């Protein structure tokens, strides 16, 4: 089948990587995704295959055993994986955010200790900002770390932790008022801690509990959990970068990568929805001809394909901007906003094309219909993205009166 969303200017290495991932998705993910999703089963065999392909080290520098590839390469791989099953892309997303934060902000000792094992897929990463009563207001977090000699004691409850059970390393954002006088802006008194833990549920280390999986409408297979810290003791060496008070900036840098990832997921899911819709429209007959020959359906297909192309172009632009070393919060916000909204619309149009069969669990589009809404929320809602975009536009177009 001819594909939308081609990317110009890729190297031979990038094209080879994408071809390998695309073949893996077609052969190993798409045939089993819906069955595993309906059982809410962790795709261990698929994850093992990604590990063999070296994808857990895709963006980790070669000196640490990774492939040293760009954010663009990673985003295009995520697009392909999400086309097969969005949950699998979620498994590697949080891993890469933690690896990226370590690469950009970790001490040399932290990089040497974690990155080689993360590149091999032996250590899986997760990151945690949100809390039960927090929503999008990161500055209002209440989880706290208090210095006690050479250690910190952490207390608090975190929410919506992707890979909470299967991960073995969690980057968690908490308050740390040490060295920050009263009245300091909230975002300047936050610190990221690196928590090593055993995979699984229950008490995974003294003072740290991962309750069971949260039951979700979609985005199944991947485990989403809470994280409860009750007197969790960590050595001072587990502060990301070795200095307190920098956690908010470290997390926001990681979230920019995450927003490109969510945009890529939206592109992949939308592309799969289009493929399913255009295929079904040529197989289903009404009034004596395939429904694809009815103008109303052709209009839908035209709109769907245009949205897929536009989303892909903005996602690629955001990734390339980040790779260039430039600030990309504007581009990442736009890409995430557009790709997630368009994904929802393309999936719904494909659902409508399927008619009553779209409501049946036997058809793949039913799964996509439940998965797409998660992208409207993940890494910041549309309203948050528009706030970011609006503020950045006012910076760029400041009126000189």
Please specify the SSE layout and strand pairing.
Elements: H1 12-39, H2 44-53, H3 71-84, H4 86-105, H5 108-119, E1 125-128, E2 144-148, E3 151-162, E4 169-175, E5 190-196, E6 202-205, E7 208-210, E8 224-235, H6 247-283, E9 285-286, E10 289-290, H7 295-323, H8 329-354, H9 364-375, H10 382-396
Parallel strand pairs: 1-4
Antiparallel strand pairs: 2-3, 3-8, 4-5, 6-7, 7-8, 9-10
In short:
With 401 residues, this protein is an alpha+beta fold. The protein is built from ten helices and ten strands.
What do these coordinates show?
There is one protein chain. This protein is an alpha+beta fold. The protein has helices spanning 12-39, 44-53, 71-84, 86-105, 108-119, 247-283, 295-323, 329-354, 364-375, 382-396; strands at 125-128, 144-148, 151-162, 169-175, 190-196, 202-205, 208-210, 224-235, 285-286, 289-290. The relative contact order is 0.12. The protein starts with 11 loop residues before the first helix and ends in a 5-residue tail after the last helix. The strands form three sheets. It has a five-stranded antiparallel β-sheet with strand order 2-3-8-7-6, with helices on one face. A three-stranded mixed β-sheet has the order 1-4-5. Strands 9-10 form a two-stranded antiparallel sheet. α7 runs antiparallel to α8 (329-354). Helices cover 51% and strands 14% of the residues. The model has no long low-confidence stretch (mean pLDDT 93). β6 (202-205) and β7 form a beta hairpin.
């Amino acid at each position: 089948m001819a594909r939308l969303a081609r990317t110009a200017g890729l190297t031979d290495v990038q094209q080879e990587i994408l071809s390998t991932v695309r073949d893996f998705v077609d052969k190993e993910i798409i045939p089993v995704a819906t069955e595993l999703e309906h059982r809410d089963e962790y795709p261990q065999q698929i994850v093992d295959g990604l590990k063999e392909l070296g994808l857990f080290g895709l963006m980790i520098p070669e000196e640490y055993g990774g492939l040293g590839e760009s954010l663009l390469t990673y985003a295009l791989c995520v697009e392909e994986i999400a086309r097969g099953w969005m949950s699998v892309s979620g498994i590697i997303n949080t891993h890469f955010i933690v690896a990226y934060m370590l690469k950009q902000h970790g001490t040399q000792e932290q990089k040497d200790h974690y990155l080689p094992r993360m590149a091999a897929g032996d250590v899986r990463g997760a990151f945690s900002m949100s809390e039960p009563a927090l929503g999008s207001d990161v500055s209002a977090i209440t989880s706290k770390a208090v210095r006690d000699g050479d250690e910190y004691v952490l207390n608090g409850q975190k929410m919506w932790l992707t890979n909470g059970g299967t991960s073995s390393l969690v980057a968690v954002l908490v308050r740390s008022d040490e060295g920050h006088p009263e009245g300091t802006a909230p975002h300047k008194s936050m610190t990221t801690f690196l928590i090593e833990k055993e995979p699984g549920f229950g008490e995974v280390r003294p003072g740290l509990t991962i309750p069971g999986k949260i039951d979700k409408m979609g985005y199944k297979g991947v485990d989403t959990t809470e994280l409860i810290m009750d007197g969790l003791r960590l050595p001072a060496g587990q502060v990301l970068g070795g200095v307190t008070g920098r956690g908010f900036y470290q997390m926001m840098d990681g979230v920019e990568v995450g927003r490109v990832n969510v945009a890529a997921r939206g592109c992949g899911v939308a592309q799969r929805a289009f493929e399913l819709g255009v295929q079904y429209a040529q197989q289903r007959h009404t009034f004596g001809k395939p429904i694809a020959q009815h103008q109303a359906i052709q209009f839908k297909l035209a709109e769907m394909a245009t949205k897929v192309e536009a989303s892909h172009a903005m996602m690629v632009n955001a990734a390339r901007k980040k790779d260039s070393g430039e600030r990309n919060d504007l581009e990442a916000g736009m890409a995430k906003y557009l790709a997630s909204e368009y994904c929802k619309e393309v999936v719904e149009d494909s659902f409508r094309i399927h008619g009553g069969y779209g409501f049946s669990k036997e058809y793949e589009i039913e799964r996509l219909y439940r998965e797409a809404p998660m992208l409207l929320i993940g890494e910041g809602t549309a309203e948050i993205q528009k706030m970011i975009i609006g503020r950045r536009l006012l910076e760029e177009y400041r009126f000189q009166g």
